[in-house]
């Protein structure tokens, strides 16, 4: 998010693009054949890119994840994301770099299922970011984070619903992960991070409802008792997924962070895949047209 709160960006590198209809239709047999760099900018002139690419577009080394013409590169103490994509539906080039400079790196790994089939890794719960893109007004500085999810099964095979939130604090950050698994069990985790990336105890506030967005996805987050959290910036609103900036209060401190809600019962429905195919074009090879 930008320091003035007017703009935001989300970037996800996929090997096995979990929300791609092409990956599902393929039977999910070859994750490398469905790689993607999803870049979404929020605010005036915001754009969406999510191109599903074949395995010829994937390159892996110790410090570099290459996905077609774009890449994520670890450079010393920072992550540099090189973006060269085409937006949908505007068909405009989105190019430039985003640099993520972590305050610290963590060793934290959280299994989301009892067998470890899904794992969350918050590599950098707090970071500075520098955005330099070719769109008007899209050169700015702000704060962000860097995390990853890994899984050996489809998300909808193991989960019905989850919410996630990351909220910066004066002396660190707090993350909340709540999920309902397919077997009826619940995941409820609160993790506090100090500035140096170390874990610290944090009291988990009670759940609090958020107003439903346009696609009516159920949303809830964590907030101090008696406090009503609210959306302060709309980001992504889809039939099964919502991302927004939310203001809440955590252990007496009011803060604005990124919140996500994912309804995997909706995502499980076959009716959704043709809709997603419109927003997620498929390009088998690269080089060639972006």
Layout of secondary structure:
Layout: E1 8-15, H1 21-25, E2 35-42, E3 48-49, E4 52-53, E5 58-60, E6 64-67, E7 70-75, E8 78-86, E9 93-102, E10 110-111, E11 118-133, E12 139-151, H2 155-158, E13 159-169, E14 172-181, E15 186-194, E16 199-200, E17 207-210, E18 219-222, E19 230-237, E20 241-250, E21 253-263, H3 264-267, H4 272-279, E22 282-283
Parallel strand pairs: 4-22
Antiparallel strand pairs: 1-2, 2-3, 5-6, 6-7, 7-8, 8-9, 9-11, 10-11, 11-12, 13-14, 13-21, 14-15, 15-16, 17-18, 19-20, 20-21
Provide the β-strand percentage band: over 45%
How many alpha or pi helices? 4
Q: Mean pLDDT across all residues, rounded? A: 95
Helix percent band: under 10%
Q: Order of helices and strands, N to C? A: EHEEEEEEEEEEEHEEEEEEEEEHHE
Number of strand elements: 22
Radius of gyration: 18 Å
Spatial gap, N to C terminus = 27 Å
Protein structure class: mainly beta
The tally of domains stands at: 1
Shape: globular
Regions with little confidence, pLDDT below 50 for 5+ residues: none
Sheet with most strands? 8 strands, antiparallel
Describe this structure in words.
With 290 residues, the protein is mainly beta. It has one domain (8-279). Helix content is 7%, strand content 53%. It has 4 helices and 22 strands. It has helices at 21-25, 155-158, 264-267, 272-279, and strands at residues 8-15, 35-42, 48-49, 52-53, 58-60, 64-67, 70-75, 78-86, 93-102, 110-111, 118-133, 139-151, 159-169, 172-181, 186-194, 199-200, 207-210, 219-222, 230-237, 241-250, 253-263, 282-283. Strands 5, 6, 7, 8, 9, 10, 11 and 12 form an 8-stranded antiparallel sheet that branches. A hairpin with a 6-residue loop joins strand 10 and strand 11. The mean pLDDT is 95.
């Amino acid at each position: 998010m930008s320091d003035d709160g007017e703009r935001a960006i989300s970037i996800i590198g996929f090997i096995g693009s979990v929300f791609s209809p092409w990956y599902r239709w393929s039977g999910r047999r070859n994750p490398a054949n469905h790689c993607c760099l999803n870049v979404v900018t929020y605010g005036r002139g915001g754009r969406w890119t999510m191109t599903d690419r074949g395995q010829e577009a994937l390159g892996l080394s110790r410090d570099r994840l290459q996905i077609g013409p774009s890449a994520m590169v670890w450079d010393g103490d920072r992550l540099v994301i090189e973006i060269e994509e085409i937006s949908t539906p505007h068909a405009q080039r989105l190019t430039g770099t985003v640099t993520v400079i972590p305050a610290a790196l963590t060793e934290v790994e959280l299994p989301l299922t009892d067998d470890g089939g899904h794992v969350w890794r918050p590599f950098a719960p707090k970071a500075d970011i520098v955005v330099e893109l070719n769109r008007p007004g899209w050169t700015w500085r702000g704060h962000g984070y860097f995390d990853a999810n890994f899984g050996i099964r489809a998300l909808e095979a193991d989960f019905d619903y989850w919410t996630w939130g990351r909220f910066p604090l004066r002396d660190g950050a707090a993350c909340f992960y709540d999920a309902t698994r397919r077997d009826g069990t619940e995941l409820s985790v609160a993790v506090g991070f100090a500035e140096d990336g170390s874990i610290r105890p944090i009291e988990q506030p009670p759940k609090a409802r958020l107003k439903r967005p346009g696609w009516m996805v159920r949303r809830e987050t964590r907030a101090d008792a008696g406090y009503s959290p609210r959306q302060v910036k709309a980001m992504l609103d889809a039939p099964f997924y919502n991302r927004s900036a939310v203001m809440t209060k955590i252990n007496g401190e009011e803060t604005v962070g990124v919140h996500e809600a994912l309804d995997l019962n909706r995502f499980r429905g076959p009716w959704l895949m043709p809709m997603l195919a419109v927003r997620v074009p498929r390009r088998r090879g690269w080089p060639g047209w972006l």
